[in-house]
Amino acid sequence: MAGFGMQITRDDGVIFASPEFTPTVLVQVMDRTADYTGDVSAQHYYETIVPNAKKCFIFHKILSTGSQQGASGGVLHYAEQGPNGFWRVHTTAGTAGLVHTIRFYVFSEFVVNIPEWGIYFYKDGQIVYTGNCLPLDIKFWERPQLTTPAPTMPCATICSVARQLTQGIPGTNPPTALIFLFCFTGFSSGIITPVFRQISQSAGGGSVDGFSKGCAYIETSLYDQYYKTSLGYA
After folding, report:
1. Which domain of life is it from (predicted)?
2. pLDDT per residue rounded down to tens, the chain (234 residues)
3. Which of 128, 140, 114, 144 is nearest to 59 (CA)?
4. From 76, 136, 150, 170, which residue has the greatest number of CB atoms within 10 Å?
């Protein structure tokens, strides 16, 4: 915490911005399309503006799946350091036969847009925070049981595997099983766990079913309302 100047505090008195540092803030919003109509293992890459040397946190929300509004299918992705010097989103698997429209919320620790007026924080002559910044407000959906209710407001999630389910295929010789992999996905009405891939293997191949006990997410209503102004898109 800076020993001079001005600080911004939360309603519980905790300081989250001062002239000493830039907190984790929204730096980019990307709407992208991932096509899995021809290849369920297609690899898609979406470069961000965050340099590899900086921290990067990426959340995703399904805007539509094919011609259907909402989230009926899953996409698995992760953030990785790209060859061009910037973090990128790498989608590694999606629901077969579907085209997904996805919104990515990218957070890092630098200011991307200087508004014409407002509150500014400086350190050594450099702006480290402005009143238009949208800090990361991360939450966690704790899911001790598969039936635990999910959040019901618009959400975006840190993408991760949510569950594995194995089902035998009757009448197959040798015995064969289908493994269904589910992922956490944010959408306009909360968080769901759709299938993003199914794998066929010999029954008794050693797969162990299970489910994740929760996922990190953000509520997106505020970000969706103000990101264009905050990032200078408007």
Report:
1. Bacteria
2. 444 445 677 788 776 656 567 889 999 999 999 888 888 778 899 999 999 999 999 999 998 865 445 556 788 888 999 999 999 999 987 877 788 899 999 999 999 998 888 888 877 888 888 889 999 999 999 998 989 999 999 999 998 889 988 888 887 777 788 888 889 999 999 998 888 887 777 766 556 788 999 999 999 999 999 999 999 997
3. 140
4. 76
Instruction: Specify whether the CB–CB gap between 170 and 154 falls below 8 A.
Output: no
- Look at phi and psi of residue 90 and say left if phi exceeds 0, alpha if psi is from -120 to 50, else beta: beta
60 is a domain residue? no
Q: Burial code of 127-166, b = ≥16 C-beta within 10 A, e = fewer?
A: ebbbebbbbbeeeebebeeeeeebeeebbbbbbebbbbeb
Domain-embedded: residue 156: yes
Q: Residue 190 has which token pair?
A: 């909360």
Domain count, the chain: 1
Residue 112 in tokens = 């991307």
95 C-beta neighbours (distance < 10 Å), count: 22
Tell whether 148 is covered by a domain: yes
